Amino acid sequence: MIYLDNGATSFPKPKAMLESMYKCMAEYCGNPGRSGHYMSMKTGEEVYKTRKSVAKLFNIANPGRIIFTINTTGALNQGIQGLLRAGDHVITTSMEHNSVLRPLKMLETRGVEHTIVKCDRTGTLNLRDIKAAIKENTCMIICTHASNVTGTIMPIGEIGELAHRNNLLFMVDGAQSGGCIPINVVDMNIDLLALPGHKGLLGPMGTGLLYVRDGIELDPLLLGGTGTSSKDRNQPREMPEGYESGTVNAPGIVGLGTSVEILLNMGINAIHDYEETLTQMLDEALRNMKNVTVYGVEDCKKKAGIVTFNVKGKSCEQVADELSEMYGIAGRAGFHCAGLAHKTIGTWETGALRLSVGPFNTKPQIKTAIEAVNKITRHL
């Protein structure tokens, strides 16, 4: 199968990552931070090595400010629910994933306000609209780095600068950009960064992380055993242990560390340039097809490796099924857990089909996908 569903999870996974996970489980997988024997200590060391690798990738000065979670959703919820209080006001955008919009909706019942700044039909954000939404009680801006629906890249460096000029926290959802597009938390003024381990970072499912800048305190979302202060019924607040209650996914975190090292060796800029080339091939070809509507910006320098489209006369689910069953091509049809983004781009009623590239896709695979969509359109 030609796998073009990297926006959902990356595939294939690096062989070295799989081997490191197996080695962890087969040779030394003790419970880190719980015991003083070799297996526990060795596992703890390997988990910390992953923190250091992630810190290097995103220019994070203190690896201890990285909290491991099970996915981006867990990371976003920890940041959003751990920080916001009654009377606070948050600014976000119409291109956000439900992992941002649903927590904010729930927090309305606790007295937290939010403003959704509408993007244009390509998913592009106007910075002036963010600035205009700032109120006296605004405390945070939350923004996706790249839309999971259109791939449109948001100007997070400029948003971060605007946030800090106004003494606001800036939280970034990097689900579609981490490992694919360069991110520097210092240069971009990012205070909190939520990431999946299993997408652009090429790690296993069940891994994610939240970076929290030094000086920011938030309430832990999960309370329980941390391996420290066991006699105290109050939850410890030390980073990262106080925010990783229970047994962590050590094999997954070890595998993630291996994948991040692979990315560091490949170079994020090189990965970004390669994926941009593949995206440009696919985007241009589909835009030139009769009866195909492609959504998002045309300039692929302004989007992640995502091409989202519909074929006139067919539902997106029907096209996805034909690509899978007749041509062996994997994509994702529907609303992508981001209904408001679809409303923004005009696909609220229909949804759309998303093809998303990764670093292991090839130009011949993209050509095959183009030919397959072309054949489907000719059968109308």
Automatic annotation (TrEMBL):
Co-factor(s): pyridoxal 5'-phosphate
Catalytic activity: (sulfur carrier)-H + L-cysteine = (sulfur carrier)-SH + L-alanine
Top-level taxon: Bacteria
Any one of the GO BP annotations: cysteine metabolic process
EC number(s) stated in the UniProt entry for this protein: 2.8.1.7
Domain annotation Aminotransferase class V: ranges: 2-367
Any GO molecular function: transaminase activity
Compositional bias of kind Basic and acidic residues: 230-240
InterPro entries on file: Aminotrans_V_dom, Cys_dSase-rel_unknwn_funct, Cys_dSase_SufS, Cysteine_dSase, PyrdxlP-dep_Trfase, PyrdxlP-dep_Trfase_major, PyrdxlP-dep_Trfase_small
Region described as Disordered: spans on this chain: 225-245
UniProt keyword list: Aminotransferase, Pyridoxal phosphate, Transferase
Keyword Transferase: yes
Family: Belongs to the class-V pyridoxal-phosphate-dependent aminotransferase family. Csd subfamily.
PANTHER family: CYSTEINE DESULFURASE, ISOPENICILLIN N EPIMERASE
Protein's recorded name: cysteine desulfurase
Species: Aminipila terrae
